[in-house]
């Protein structure tokens, strides 16, 4: 209350005391009493002289202090005495029936100087609803000061009080207990400085949307605030030693990773000047910064630096939650990392990143790199050079050797400064062109061209868990383009294998690093050596050449779901055509047919191999069923192998027009894994 306003009322009561010696008490009533920041209605003051010391009782039906309404005020002093010019009440009691819907009780030692207008309340106890505080206050012509000290306060009650006082908070519920200390100073209705300290002891809270939640928080927070121009000057510290905090999508266990934050900032009504920021977590890293933020907290002009960071903790804690559902969401990462970032005029204009002793591994086994070292620099205004190197790597099951790439950034794109030669098994992938635009964004685009020098098919097949292949693979990888989650090859993908050639056209790979990649392509085989091919797959020996094509290949999660495949003897093939007993038996089982021709089944055991004129097998896969065909129609079926006119002649005829794809694959696996069959 305003001491200068109440002092005249007290003076009237006390100066009337000598004239009231014939009376036990004196009472004065006022309808209204107004003053700066204070409005009182229906005021009554009663002075009692019946005891050894004067007793004072003041009641106010309604009041408004700094525009905040109160009702049912009662101020009582049982023993008023004088100490020099001061009026002293060893124990004054204040009861308010309702402030913001809550009852208030206060007891304290009161000292009032009616001449200077200084009012002091000391050693007080304040109870606001369920909340109890230590209390002291002072009011005078040069300003006021209020100190509240609460120990082990009920967090739900404190949250409810904040709501009644009009303090904005995103929280819908709270639990636990915490300490609170408020030290505020000001002049009349103007706050000059405030310091708030919080000591959570197992505090939890959450918002209505479920995007912000905490449990068991333990720590300490301090905030100093003072008005400055149109805004505020702030200085704060926060330490969290235990508990769990979730701010969608990031969640941190502070018992495992304690955190400390220090910040100094100045607001001007339009935004904030961040004078100093320091956030640290042992075992995670140190973030420091300064700059300018707009009114919503977005960067305007900001400089940040990260140092001493451990990628194995920083990445899963603060980066990976934002990448859920992408390749980055399935990565395990490690290494030492440092970096900087710069914003100007609300835009990211530069960043740098240094990585040492790095390692990344995909939990879905799509990629892995060890011995990673990178120095990446990017600037929107000018080109910068970067380097990326690794000691070993793997894409899916393709092994990559030690490599070093030099990269140039130009605006939002990066490109190779020079050709890169990347070891692939015992060969090399020579990348002539590589360019990526808008990396990390949904509209990312990249292009590259490369040449693959000869690679051992034996090592490749072992890595891919294929049947052991012989020979070497080489080829050209032209005009590879990635955009909108789709990878395409503009030209023809060429490869050499089994003394023949393989071409891939219309290659299209959707979501290559997603959970459900989809591949489409048309493949052609030209003049393959059947002896190398069948020996590689342990199918049984077949000599001759082979042409083939796979049209409309469609794969989902690397499993075929549709294609139209046709493999046959070339029309101009003049090479020696022979087929072994085992190959005869395996082809018969695959086609679901039998053996015909000039030889009976019993005479097969007399020959190790047989001549043939031509062979062919086709499969159109649709809805899990393979629609079969052969090199020529036969009675009730189709020829898989057409024998020569001269004996010993052998024909292999297929009778099953439709074969379950899963069963066919099982037959092929059995044919390439079992030993030589016994022919009876």
What this model shows, in words?
The structure is a single chain. With 680 residues, the chain is mainly beta. The protein is built from seven helices and 46 strands. The strands form two sheets. It has a 44-stranded antiparallel sheet that branches. Strands 38-40 form a two-stranded antiparallel sheet. The model is unreliable at 1-5, 596-602 and 675-680 (pLDDT under 50).
Helical fraction equals 10-25%
Anisotropy-based shape? elongated
Strand content is over 45%
Which class do the helix and strand fractions yield? mainly beta
- Major sheet description: 44 strands, antiparallel
Can you give the mean pLDDT? Answer: 86
Low-pLDDT stretches are 1-5, 596-602, 675-680
Brief rundown of the structure:
This protein has 7 helices and 46 strands. A hairpin with a 2-residue loop joins strand 20 and strand 21.
Chain-wise SSE layout:
Layout: H1 3-15, E1 25-35, E2 38-48, E3 55-65, E4 68-77, E5 81-83, E6 86-99, E7 102-113, E8 118-128, E9 131-140, E10 143-154, H2 155-164, E11 173-187, E12 190-206, E13 212-228, E14 231-247, E15 250-253, E16 259-267, E17 271-281, E18 285-294, E19 299-310, H3 311-319, E20 331-344, E21 347-362, E22 367-379, E23 384-390, E24 392-395, E25 398-400, E26 403-410, E27 413-416, E28 420-424, E29 427-437, E30 445-456, H4 457-463, E31 472-483, E32 486-489, E33 493-497, E34 500-510, E35 518-529, H5 530-536, E36 545-556, E37 559-568, E38 578-580, H6 581-591, E39 594-596, E40 609-611, E41 614-622, E42 625-630, E43 632-634, E44 637-642, E45 651-654, E46 658-660, H7 661-673
Antiparallel strand pairs: 1-2, 2-3, 3-4, 4-6, 5-6, 6-7, 7-8, 8-9, 9-10, 10-11, 11-12, 12-13, 13-14, 14-15, 14-16, 16-17, 17-18, 18-19, 19-20, 20-21, 21-22, 22-23, 22-24, 23-26, 24-25, 26-27, 27-29, 28-29, 29-30, 30-31, 31-32, 31-33, 32-34, 33-34, 34-35, 35-36, 36-37, 37-41, 38-40, 39-45, ...
């Amino acid at each position: 209350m305003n001491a200068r306003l109440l002092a005249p009322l007290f003076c009237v009561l006390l100066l009337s005391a000598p004239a009231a010696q014939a009376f036990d008490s004196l009472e004065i009533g006022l309808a209204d009493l107004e003053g700066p920041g204070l409005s009182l209605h229906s005021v009554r003051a009663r002075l009692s002289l019946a005891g050894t010391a004067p007793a004072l009782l003041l009641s106010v039906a309604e009041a408004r202090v700094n525009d905040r309404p109160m009702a049912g005020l009662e101020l009582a002093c049982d023993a008023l005495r004088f100490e020099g010019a001061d009026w002293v009440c060893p124990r004054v009691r204040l009861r308010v029936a309702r402030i913001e819907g809550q009852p208030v009780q206060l007891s304290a030692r009161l000292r009032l100087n009616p001449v200077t207008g200084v009012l002091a309340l000391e050693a007080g106890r304040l109870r606001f609803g369920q909340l109890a505080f230590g209390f002291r206050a002072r009011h005078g012509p040069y300003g006021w000061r209020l100190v509240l000290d609460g120990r082990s306060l009920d967090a739900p009650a404190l949250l409810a009080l904040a709501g009644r006082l009009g303090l904005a908070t995103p929280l819908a519920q709270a639990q636990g207990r915490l300490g609170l200390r408020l030290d505020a100073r000001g002049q009349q209705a103007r706050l000059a400085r405030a310091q708030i300290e919080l000591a959570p002891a197992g505090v939890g809270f959450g918002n209505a949307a479920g995007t912000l939640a905490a449990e068991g928080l333990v720590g300490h927070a301090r905030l100093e605030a003072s008005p400055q121009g149109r805004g505020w000057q702030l200085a704060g510290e926060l330490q969290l030693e235990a508990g769990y905090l979730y701010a969608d999508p990031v969640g941190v266990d502070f018992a495992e990773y304690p955190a400390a934050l220090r910040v100094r900032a100045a607001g001007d009504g339009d935004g904030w000047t961040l004078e100093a920021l320091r956030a640290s977590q042992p075992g995670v890293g140190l973030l420091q910064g300064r700059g300018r933020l707009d009114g919503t907290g977005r960067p305007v002009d900001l400089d940040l630096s990260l140092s001493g960071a451990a990628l194995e903790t920083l990445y899963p804690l603060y980066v990976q939650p934002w990448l859920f559902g992408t390749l980055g969401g399935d990565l395990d990462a490690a290494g030492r990392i440092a970096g900087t970032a710069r914003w100007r005029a609300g835009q990211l204009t530069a960043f740098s990143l240094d990585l040492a002793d790095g390692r990344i591994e995909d939990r879905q086994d799509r990629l892995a790199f060890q011995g990673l070292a990178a120095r990446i620099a990017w600037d929107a205004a000018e080109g910068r050079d970067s380097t990326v190197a690794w000691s070993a790597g793997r894409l899916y099951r393709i092994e990559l050797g030690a490599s070093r790439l030099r990269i140039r950034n130009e605006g939002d794109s990066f490109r190779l400064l020079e050709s890169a030669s990347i070891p692939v098994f015992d060969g090399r992938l020579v990348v002539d062109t590589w360019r990526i635009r808008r990396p990390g964004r949904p509209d990312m685009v990249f292009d590259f061209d490369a040449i693959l020098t000869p690679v051992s098919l034996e090592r490749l097949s072992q890595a891919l868990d294929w049947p052991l292949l012989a020979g070497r693979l080489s080829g050209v990888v032209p005009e590879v383009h990635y955009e909108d989650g789709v990878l395409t090859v503009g030209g023809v993908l060429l490869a050499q294998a089994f003394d023949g050639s393989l071409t891939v056209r219309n290659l299209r790979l959707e979501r290559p690093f997603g959970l459900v990649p989809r591949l489409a392509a048309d493949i052609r085989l030209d003049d393959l050596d059947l002896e190398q091919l069948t020996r590689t797959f342990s199918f049984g020996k077949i000599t001759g050449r082979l042409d083939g094509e796979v049209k409309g290949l469609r794969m989902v999660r690397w499993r075929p779901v549709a294609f139209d495949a046709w493999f046959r003897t070339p029309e101009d093939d003049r090479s020696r055509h022979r087929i072994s007993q085992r190959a005869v038996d395996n082809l018969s089982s695959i086609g679901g047919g039998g053996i015909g021709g000039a030889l009976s089944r019993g005479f097969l055991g007399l020959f190790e191999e047989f001549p043939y004129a031509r062979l062919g097998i086709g499969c159109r896969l649709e809805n899990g069923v393979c629609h079969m065909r052969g090199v020529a129609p036969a009675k009730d079926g189709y020829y898989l192998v057409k024998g020569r006119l001269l004996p010993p002649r052998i024909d292999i005829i297929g009778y099953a027009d439709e074969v379950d794809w899963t069963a066919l694959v099982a037959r092929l696996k059995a044919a390439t894994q079992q030993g030589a069959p016994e022919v009876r």
